[in-house]
Amino acid sequence: MRPARKPFVSPAGSGGPGRRAVLGALAGAGAATFLGASPAAAAAPDTSALHGGDTLRIKAFPGAESERLRLDRALRASDFIPTGRYAAPGAEVAVDVRCAAGVRPVLHIGTFDYYNTDTALQTPRAVELKPGRNTVTDVYGGPLYLSFAGHGQRGEVRFVRGAAEMAVFELGVTTEAEFQARLDAITDVPWVELLTDHAILTLTREGALLYRGEDHTRLMGLFDTVIDSHNRISGLDGGTRLDRPKAGRYHFNEVSVVPKGVGAYAWHGYNGFPRAYMDRLCTVTGLSTRGWGLYHELGHLNQQAAYQAGSLTEVTVNIYSLAAQRTLGQPSNLLTVNATTGLNWFQSARAKLGTAGLSYVDDFGAYEQLVPLRQLELAFGEDFWPRLHKLVRTEHQHDDPVEDYQHPPEVEARQYRALATYASRTAGRDLTDFFVGTWAMPIDAEGIARIAALRLPKPDVDPSSLTD
Question: Which of 117, 185, 232, 375 is the most buried (most CB within 10 A)?
Fold first, then answer.
């Protein structure tokens, strides 16, 4: 039965914020050392064995849910370790496992494709591996991944038979010529992967061949750049245990189908992109100049749960999208002129301020709702959101993971209170007038009282007057 979860989605043909849809999926991120069989490879780990070695030496790291809690995120990210291997439908895959007592790797077979009409193909199938020989058969087959949740324990997984090599490009390891040769040589495996230390890009072979002429070193470097921009706006500078970037990689997955009007989506463990989006996903020019959809969907995997009210889900996500644009030297989407009004989003929002009965939730579009969040940076420094993220992590919110857009009213009220109080504490200023008086956000009496109890001074400059 299809669960009633709801992924976050971007509309097709739009550079704007995503809109809501239905359905969802489940997942987790990861890291491993890929080893060949020779003593030299064992002594000095050689990641090129991803393309030829049989043994993967893995080191356990915190799982997706524990990382979600540490970072106070609404969604779990990935804890998958790519193996560079593929199992054909019905193939008997034999693997030998050695691992420390108390921890076991899990083998995952298949890809994410939540809108697939066959529910069995919406998520990878998981099999816990035991020490010694394991034999696994999956009727559908697919790329093979591992997860290995723990705290530094060591293990080895050796593929004995039944797993074919995929064409894989690994940033800093694979040359373009080597990758092109693998694309030509491995024609019977329907999936291709491109990897960095921080990203897994899983593509159908057909999709990968459409853009095989790209500079894949530059392309995958862009993935790392976008991920780094999200880490920096999240205050993940590694200064403390709480402020370390997420363990393992982020997973970007080509999917076979999305609902009409949906450009891409995010859910627990991954971002899903249909073939129609791949001109931006798989090209250097597209990702660096028109990649808002990816910046946005990755942003959903960075949103903090403490202040992610349902009506803010498609708004706070673009804190990260704007950070990626600045990092890549792009003009802000908030400065885009609306052809209907002739105004940019700062201007159209400002025209509504002070009108009778104004409602932040009901009267502003998604870009206009983003304006006050950008104004907080303009007023209190580019480190405003990094400092706020750190403050939230320090106080360990431990919210339940997002499973639905429709939050109960009491949860929605709590999360708006959290946004206003955390923002005031981060700024060191009483922002009641900004949030309630100017932007008409639904901050209740309890939230107003909490800000007042902080006894903070008013802002020196009205943040609502600022613009890019």
Answer: 375
- Count CB atoms within 10 A of the CB of residue 218: 14
Per-residue pLDDT reduced to its tens digit, 211-242:
999 999 999 999 999 999 999 999 999 999 99
Tell me the whole-structure pTM to 2 decimals: 0.90
- The tokens 């040589």 sit on which residue? 185
Contacts of 363 (CB under 8 A, 6+ apart): 352, 355, 440
Nearest to 156 by CA among 76, 249, 72, 45: 45
Q: Quote the tokens at residue 129.
A: 């591996």
Contact 82/193 with Cβ under 8 angstroms? Answer: yes
Stated as kind and residue range, the H or E segment containing 277 is none
User: Is 401:303 a contact under the CB 8 Å cutoff?
Assistant: no
Cα 234 to its chain centre, rounded Å, is 12
Q: Report residue 143 as tokens.
A: 């790329």
Angle formed at CA 165 by CA 160 and CA 169, multiple of 5 degrees: 135
- Dist. CA 165–CA 314, nearest whole Å: 39
What is the separation of C-alpha 162 from the centre of its chain, rounded to a whole number of angstroms? 32
Nearest to 361 by CA among 444, 441, 247, 467: 441
Instruction: Write down the residue that tokens 């003593």 correspond to.
Output: 39
**CA distance linking residue 204 with residue 111, whole number of Å:** 10
Cα–Cα–Cα angle for 136, 137, 141, rounded to 5 degrees? 120
- DSSP string covering 290-345: S-HHHHHHHHHTT-BGGG--GGGHHHHTHHHHHHHHHHTTPPPGGGPPPTTTS--H
Write out the H or E segment, with its range, that includes residue 82: strand 81-87
pLDDT in tens, 281-326: 999 999 999 999 999 999 999 999 999 999 999 999 999 999 999 9
* DSSP labels, 138-201: -SS-EEEEEE-BSSS-EEEEEEEES-EEPEEEETTTS-HHHHHHHHHH--S--EEEEE-SSEEE
CA-closest candidate to residue 438, choices 367, 385, 364, 381: 364
Opening angle at CA 335, ends 331 and 341, nearest 5 = 150
The dihedrals phi and psi of 91, each to the nearest 5 degrees, come to: -70, 140
Helical (H) or strand (E) element with 332? none
Maximum Cα interatomic distance, the chain, rounded to a whole number of Å? 76
Q: Give bridge partners of residue 20 from the DSSP assignment.
A: 8
Nearest CA-CA partner of 58 in 32, 84, 96: 32
Do residues 168 and 174 lie in contact, with contact meaning Cβ atoms separated by under 8 Å? Answer: yes
